[in-house]
Design brief:
Helix content is 33%, strand content 22%. The chain is of the alpha/beta class and 426 residues long. The protein has 2 domains: 323 residues, ANL, N-terminal domain (Rossmann fold, 3-Layer(aba) Sandwich), CATH 3.40.50.12780; 96 residues, ANL, C-terminal domain (GMP Synthetase, Chain A, domain 3, 2-Layer Sandwich). Helix 6 packs across helix 7, helix 9 runs parallel beside helix 10 and helix 11 crosses helix 12. The longest helix is centred in the N-terminal third of the chain and has 22 residues.
Length: 426
Amino acid sequence: MSNIYTASSGEIKRIQWLQLEKQLLYLQKNSGFYRKLFKKNEIDPDKINSYIEFQKIPITTKENVQEFNQDFLCVPESEIIDFVTTSGTLGKPVSFALNETDLQRLATNEMESFKMIGIKKEDVVQITTTLDRRFMAGMAYFLGLRKLGAGIVRTGSGFPQLQWDSIARFKPKYLVAVPSFLLKMIEYSELNNIDCNNSSVKAVICIGEPIRDLEFKLNSLGSKISKLWDIELFSTYASTEMATAFTECEAHRGNHAQPELIFTEILDEAGNPVKPGETGELVITTLQVETMPLLRFATGDMVSYTDEPCPCGRNTLRLSPVLGRKKQMIKFKGTSLYPQHIIEVLNNFKGIPAFVIEVNTNDVGTDAVVVKIPDSLSAEKVSLLKEHFKSKLQVTPTLEQVSLKIIEKLKSPEGSRKPLVFIDYR
């Protein structure tokens, strides 16, 4: 375990602040975008010696990175080794580039994440996510496992038959997977007389979807998986912009930050830090990134945090699961909702094999929510689902029954790197 994780909170902050000061000076020297930002706002990075001063730096938005993408480059283009893009969940994907130092940092980040979970050199890990399509995460998992020295099985996304064949052949102890895909693997195992509980797999590193609630207990999706497959589920949270993962340890009490790689702020609507347990927007500053570092970048993700010592012995800040994107908040019949609220209700209701949530703006300018569910559900089942929504959220979205084929097509649009269950047309 890295010494910084078990250091006192004061020592962690001291080490992190040194990295932050170093990054500020690097941006002043090398970033066209941030040089202009500092000049326009009369900010001298050399004189920022407290968080109060740091807060005066304006927030960087996704729109900034899209519009002035080349201005964020801090190294000659000849040094760039890899190009990636974001998933484009809320719009057009954003481009990022990495040099050799950034790739080494990415490998270290993921190696530390895997070590936090308990993965050792002698273990075999099966990566069920894509390593292509400009996807940073798949590459990060590969680089991190390679740096750790663990065995790697690169199956890529989809194809439950290939996943089970690989499990039988190579006996991985761990999978890296999107949680909802695990349900497809379980379904395939049941149809093909495979005893998933008698396989080599003991744990899964879950990506892309929350498996825990704000109290760190398994949510409906996580519970559904664990009831069918007796494996340990580890939550992670990351993004291309951050190039850093927040990962659960074996205590399962939140996703640990890697303080030497990222500086985190969780802010309210007015831009002030929230207290532990309160929900705010995650704003990050990447540390030790050379090619396209970001300063006070608003991720759009709504989270809470705890800074209490973890039972595992680490004293690093821990994030809650993501409640939703700031721009995805829904005002529906006087109730404020995030997509995860609706997803949790649907996952908690038995007998729905697949669904898609769509949000639009209606004729009077307010949010309209439609949940597409399979047309194979009986009228009685649909009626029960409406009652279920009413009891859990006090409001009921419009339920539209369509073929399972339509739902699956909406969930997996061409070129998508992960399944979509929430589509925002507003």
